[in-house]
Amino acid sequence: MSWIGICRRGFAGTLPAAPGARLPAEVRQWRLRLEHAGVPEAALAVQHLWQASAQPLCAHIPQTTTWADRSARFDHLCGLRLQRWPVQYLVGDWDFCELTLAMRPPVLIPRPETEVLAMLMRSHLRATGASSILELGCGTGAISLALLHGCPGLHATVVDINPVAVELTRENAASTGLSDRITIVHGDLATVAVPGQFDAVVSNPPYVTTAEMADLQPEIAWHEDRRALDGGADGLDLARTIIARAREWLCRRGSLWLELAPQHPAAVARMDLATHCLRYVATHSDWAGLPRFCQLEASDAEE
Question: 240-253 burial string, b = 16+ CB within 10 Å, else e?
Fold first, then answer.
C-alpha cells in the first residue's frame, strides 16, 4: 500500500493576515514540532491544517471564527497530526481527478496512482462506448465518480461492505451532482447479488499481505479500515474472489480492471483465467512506472 502523500492544493485562507507576527510563528512552531517528531511532510501539513482551521465546523452555521477560535482549532488539528492522523481526514476533503471529495475515517483515502487507473478506464470506456460499470469496494466513490464525471452517458453501480463508505459515497455523489447516475449497494463482495451485466468491472481491492500489515506507516495502519488493506497471505484473497465472480457481472467482451501491488499483475496473468471465462489483456503502469493495473476481458468458454 502506497504512502498517503500530500499533494499540493491552494492555501488561500479565508481570513486576512493575522496582526503582528503571531500567525507565521504559530505555523512555524508546529512545523518544527512535527518535523522533530518525525511526522512526514510537516511543512505541507501545517499549511493545509491552517487553511482548514478557518473553515466553519458546520456548513449550515455562518462563519464566526475569531483568531482565538482559529488558533485553538489549528492546535487541535496539529495535535491530531502529531498522532499521525492523515491530513486528508483532518481537512475533511481531498482532490481526485477533477473532483473534490469528502474524506472520513476509516474509509480508505484514494491514492494518486488510482487516478491513473481512472484515466486509463475513462479512455477505454469512451473508446468502447460503454454505458455501465460496476465498482467493487467503492470506498469514497472516487473511481466511479471520476468515471461518471468524464463519461456523460455512463451509469455506475458500486458496492462496499463498510456502511461508512456507503454513506460517504452517497454524500460525494450528491456533492458532485452525480447522484442520479449511481446505484449504491451495501454488501459483501463474496456474496452480494448485483442484478444486471456491465460493460466494465473495476476494483482496488485490499492487496497488502498480512505479513506486510505490521510495516505500514502509522497513518495507514492506525486509521484506515483494515478490511480495505489486508489481502491475506499473498495479498490476492479478494482479487481471487472478484476474478471468480467477474464473468457473472460482465457482458460479452466486458473488461475487468484491478489495482494491485506491483508484484501481482504477473501472478494474475499466470492464473487459470479461462476457468472463469476471462483472458488477460494487459498490464498498465502507475506514475512511477511500476506495474500495478491489470486489464482482463470476458471471454466465452470455447475461446
Answer: bbbbebbbebbeee
